[in-house]
Write a structure and sequence with these properties.
- This protein has 3 domains: about 1-130 and about 185-220 and about 385-400, 3-Layer(aba) Sandwich (Rossmann fold), CATH 3.40.50.2000; about 140-180, no CATH class; about 230-380, Rossmann fold (3-Layer(aba) Sandwich).
- Helix 3 (about 80-90) runs parallel beside helix 4 (about 110-115), helix 5 (about 150-155) runs antiparallel to helix 6 (about 165-180) and helix 10 crosses helix 13 (about 365-380).
- By secondary structure, it is α/β, with parallel strands linked by helices.
- A 6-stranded parallel β-sheet has the order 2-1-3-4-7-8, sandwiched between helices.
- It starts with a strand and ends with a helix.
- The protein is globular.
- The chain is built from 14 helices and 14 strands.
- Strand 13 (about 325-330), helix 11 and strand 14 (about 345-350) form a beta-alpha-beta unit.
């Protein structure tokens, strides 16, 4: 099958990008012809489809004023993206298009170009941008759904996007404009939700449940049922992902002040102005490539996440169990669909429960081994073969029915 995979980044910045790249490789290995559409960037992996990519825009401190101005325009619509997509479709002629994250850097302007050629469009929902301006479904700890009838105004007043009035205003305008155009729902044939939790949130916020299928993400390596030898395990717990207040990392660090004998390793990108305090048992190990991250996970006691955000899936939990490590996290979003509480980890209701879980798993070698065995067994439910068969079944169904 000829499959067009679309994501705004062709390098790993977050979990959605990793899934996009893992899936692209999986589809190719299984004999499909795969094209990629993305944004040009010096950080990109090599792609033979680079000539079709949209030009770079950015919103960071290192980006120029012109790149930021271009980026603001592209948030709403991009004639360049539409034009480049038209060229790619003419040259590649895909059977199906699979969208990941296209907000801001690409824009949904490409959707109508695909749709008018009667090419089915599938979108994997990696976050809540379809139903909330800031991706998160939360605003300063309060649920977006619970904001009162003036929620857009309150969103701006409370600086719910990057703690900025201007940025909050821009994403509200973008969100409202795309809702007015109905640009996603009228063009997308099927949404793939990585969890039942995500599916239910989409339905509760107005997306037709008949257009949603639940398809959890997959593990990228075969599982050999190997339990790390305790003699090789260093006495540290690892968190990996975005290092920010938003993800609760500040509170996690505060918790570990109570466990000076246990080290906390932090891996990932440090978000904007977040400062990691100098503590003897807290160590920042940088942004790790997959192979190095796997090594750190396998040598750890267990994996932890302090995020209380309603995660659409929780790749951090999947990375833990596929490597035979218990996972400790809050009862937020889809974690409970990946990790079995009190069997392969702890899904905690509050900080007291999390601290008790840390204490138990760090002290009890036998408990960790038991949880590790169960984690590896649980990970078999997310193998790549099963995922591939399911997604290709969905693709074939849409292609035949178009």
């Amino acid at each position: 099958m000829k499959i067009l995979e679309i994501n705004k980044f062709n390098y790993v910045q977050g979990g959605s990008d990793r899934h996009f790249q893992d899936l692209t490789r999986l589809l190719k290995v299984r004999g499909n012809e795969v094209a990629v559409f993305s944004m040009d960037s010096s950080q990109n992996e090599f792609s033979p489809w680079k000539k079709y990519f949209v030009s770079y825009v950015g919103f960071g401190k290192a980006d120029s004023l012109w790149q930021k101005i271009k980026g603001i325009g592209r948030m709403f619509y991009s004639f360049e993206a539409k034009r480049n997509m038209r060229k790619l479709l003419a040259d590649f002629q895909p059977d199906i298009a699979h969208i990941h994250n296209i907000y801001h850097q690409i824009s949904p302007s490409i959707l109508s170009e695909i749709k008018k050629r009667k090419i089915p469009i599938v979108m994997t929902v990696h976050d809540y941008k379809l139903i909330c301006p800031n991706y998160l479904l939360q605003c300063n700890g309060q649920s977006w759904e619970n904001l009162d009838k003036n929620k857009y105004l309150n969103f701006i007043k409370q600086k719910c996007f990057k703690q900025s009035y201007l940025k909050s205003l821009l994403v509200v305008l973008e969100f409202s404009w795309h809702k007015f155009l109905n640009i996603y729902d009228k063009n997308i044939d099927l949404y793939l939700a990585p969890s039942e939790f995500t599916k239910n949130k989409l339905i509760a916020n107005g997306i037709d449940g008949n257009k949603i299928r639940v398809l959890p993400h997959f593990v990228t390596e075969e599982n050999h049922n190997e339990i790390a030898k305790l003699a090789n395990v260093e006495k540290y717990v690892i968190y990996f992902g975005q290092i920010s207040t938003e993800k609760g990392v500040d509170k996690l660090i505060a918790m570990f002040k109570n466990f000076p004998e246990i080290k906390l390793y932090l891996a990932g990108s440090v978000y904007e102005n977040f400062i990691i305090p100098e503590l003897d048992n807290v160590k920042y190990v940088g942004f790790l490539e997959q192979q190095e991250l796997t090594r750190y996970i396998k040598n750890s006691l267990f994996v932890i996440s302090p995020s209380r955000l309603p995660e659409t899936f929780g790749l951090v939990a999947l990375e833990a169990i596929k490597n035979g490590k218990p996972f400790v996290g809050f009862d937020a979003g889809a974690y409970g669909e990946i990790v079995e509480n009190n069997r392969s980890g702890y899904i905690c209701k509050n900080e007291e429960e999390m601290m008790e879980g840390i204490k138990q798993l760090a002290a009890d070698d036998g408990l960790r081994i038991l949880f590790s065995r169960r984690a590896l067994e649980r990970a078999k439910n997310f193998d790549s073969k099963q995922y591939y068969e399911r997604i290709m079944g969905i693709f074939h169904e849409l292609v035949v029915g178009k």
